[in-house]
Amino acid sequence: MAQEIIDGRKIAAEIREELKQRVLKLKDKGVTPGLAAILLGEDPGSLSYLRSIAKGCEAVGMLTETVKLQENISQENLEAEIIKLNHNPKFHGIILQLPLPKHLDTIRAESTISPEKDVDGTNPVSTGKLLLGEDTFLPSTPRGVQELLIRSGHSPEGKHVVICGRSNIVGKPLMGILIQKKEGANATITVCHTGTKNLASITRQADIIVAAMGKAGIITADMVREGATVVDVGVNQIQDPVSGKFRLVGDVDFDAVKEKAGAITPVPGGTGPVTSAILLANTVWAAEKVTI
Amino acid sequence: MTAKIIDGKAISASIKEELKERLKKLYLLGVTPGLSGVLVGEDPGSATYIRLKEKVSAELGVNSAMLRLAADITQDKLLAEIERLNADASIHGIFLQLPLPEHLNENVALAAVSPDKDVDGFHPTNIGKAWLGQSAFIPAGALAVHEMILRSGFKPDGKDMVIVGVDDLVGKPLASILVQDRVGSRANVTLCDPSIENLASYTKRADILVVAANRPRFITGDMVKDGVVVLDAGSNWQLDPVTKKNKTVGDVEFDSVGEKAAAITPVPGGVGPMLIIMLMSNTIMAAEHASNC
Lengths: 292, 293
Prior knowledge:
By secondary structure, chain A is an alpha/beta fold. Chain A has ten helices and eleven strands. Helix content of chain A is 40%, strand content 16%. In chain A, the strands form three sheets. Chain A has a six-stranded parallel β-sheet. In chain A, helix 1 packs parallel to helix 10. The longest helix of chain A is centred in the first third of the chain and has 21 residues. Chain B is of the alpha/beta class. Chain B has two domains: 86 residues, 3-Layer(aba) Sandwich (Rossmann fold); 138 residues, NAD(P)-binding Rossmann-like Domain (Rossmann fold, 3-Layer(aba) Sandwich), CATH 3.40.50. In chain B, helix 6 packs across helix 7. The longest helix of chain B has 21 residues. The N and C termini of chain B lie far apart (46 Å). At the A-B interface, helix 5, helix 7 and strand 6 of A face helix 5, helix 7 and strand 7 of B. Strand 6 of chain A pairs antiparallel with strand 7 of chain B, so a sheet runs across the interface.
C-alpha cells in the first residue's frame, strides 16, 4: 500500500508562515511578541531545544531570551525570577525548561507562572480550562499532535485514538484535547500505559495511535492495524551497535510499522518541529490577547 | 440472575460511619466543618437537593448554612456573596446548586469559589490538579463511582475501563482518577461519547463499564461481555407503561445486562445515594486541610 510519511517540518513551516503575518499585525500596533525561556544549568539537550526555539522566534519576527539560572538556585529565588518575568511586559510567554533539579518543586514553580503567560499550559488552572473546553493555552506537544493530524488530513473526528503513555505533558492533556466536543477533536480516546498487559490488543483497535511512552521502538508492526495513522512523540537517544554513534529514534519501530501504517510520522522531523511551532503560536496569541 | 448487586445505600452507610470518626478528630481540635450551599431562585428540584444536603449535614454533625438568593440576583451580587463565603472562616465547603438561572454566567461563578473550599470540584484549579494527579477536590459523581468499584472488591488496575458519557460531573473527572499511576487506578481508560455509531464495539471490550449518558435503558445486554462490572450513573424520569407512574430508571437495562454482569448497580439505590455522602467527605477533607489535620 501507499504509505504516507507525515512531514512535520513542512507543517511547522506552514504554521510559521501564518504566524509571520500575525506578528506583522502586532508590530503595526507597536508590539513584538516575546518569549522567555528559563533554563537551570547547562543540559545539552535543553540548550539545543532552546536554540531551535530561538531560531523559530527569529524566523517569525519574535523576540526571545533564555534566562539561564544556576542549577543550585533555591525554590524562593527561582519563583522570584519567574515573578519578575510575569511583571516584565516585554515577555508575553514564559516557559520553564524541564526537568528541574531534584531539590526543586516543579509543580510549585510551574504554578508561579502567570496563567496569562503560561504558553506551555502547565499551570493547573490551564489544565482545568483545557478539560472544560474553555479558551486557554494548550500544552504545545499534544496541541501539536492535534494540529499535525488535522493539517495532514487525518482529523481525529469520530476516530478511535489510542494514546500510549499517560504523562502530564503529552498523554493526559492530549486525551483532554481530543475528547472535547469541538471541530478537530470529537474522538473516542483510550489511554494505555507501560504497565498495560494487553497493549497490542488495544492498539490494534486504533484508527490513530499516538506513541508517547519514552521507550525506543516499543510500538511494533504487529501492534498496528493495516492502514492506521501512527504519530510518534517519543524521542529516545540510542547508540548504534555498529558505528557506536548516538542517534534519535522514536517509540515506534519506524521501518517495520511504515509498511503497515497508512500514514506515519518520522523521528526526527515529525512531531518535534510542530511542537516548537505551536509554542510560538501560543506566544503570539498571548501577545494578541493583551493587544487587541 | 447471578450478578452481585452493588448496593449504594449500604456503601454510603459505611462511609458515613468512617466520616463520623474523622469528625470526632476535628471536634477534638475545636473544629466543626461548615458547608454552605448557594441556591439561586426556587427551582423545586434544586430546593429538594439543598434540603437533602442540609438533612445529611445535620445527621452527621456538619454545620450547614444554605444561602437562598432571589432568582433575579445580578452576577455582581452573586459574586459578592461567594466572596463573603470565601472569607468566612467557619465555612469550609461551598457549592453552587446548579443550574443557575440563565442570566448568570455559571463558569464565572464556579471559578469565583475559592479552590480551597470548592467541595464540588468544579473550579478549573481543582479540575486541573486532579487531572495532573495532585491532591484536589473531585466531583461527587466520579468519587462515588470509584469508591463503589473499590469497596465492592474490584480493582481498576490494569483493567479495560470504558466510560460512556464525556461530561464534567462523571466522565471526565472519573477518567482523571483512573488514568493516574496509583493503586486503585492505572486502568486503560476509554472515554466514549454516547452518540458514536459503533458504541457497542467499545462497551463489549469493557472489564468495568461506567455509564453516565442520561439516556434511559440505553445500554442493553448485547452490548456487554460476560463478567463485566457495571456502574450506572444515569438517572432518568420515565413513565412506567404498566403502572402509568413516573419512576427513576438508569442508563442501563438492568435485567438484560444483569444476566451477563458479574456485578451491577441498581437504579435507584446505586450511585444516587452515594452523591451527598461524597460531598460530605469533601467538606470534611476541606476542614481537615484548613486545620492541618
